[in-house]
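Q: How would the structure tokens look for this protein?
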Amino acid sequence: MRIRLQSLAGVTTVKVLMSHEMESGQRKGDDGRTIPIWNIQDVSASLNGRVVMTAEWGGGVSKNPFMQFSVKGTKPGDKIAITWKDNRGDSRTDEAFVT
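A: Here is the predicted structure in token form.
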């Protein structure tokens, strides 16, 4: 994941680019068989360990999804962590610090 943070007056804009294939389960491969669904289902963001955002995604989200949101009440040194989990049980967590 690539996480970019921009802070201004205690409000931090979080921009996240996630690397994931995000198969919808509706496409067919070269052999004509349907490619199985494989997508991120749950996304959460935390500020210093406290959850500040959650999302539930489905098959309509594009490959390598981009997400942006804002968090109020941040200060330099605060840690923002982003976690996703997909339908195959894979997960990833990355973090960035407010400057």
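The mean pLDDT is 96.

The first strand starts at residue 2 and ends at 8.

Upvote if useful.
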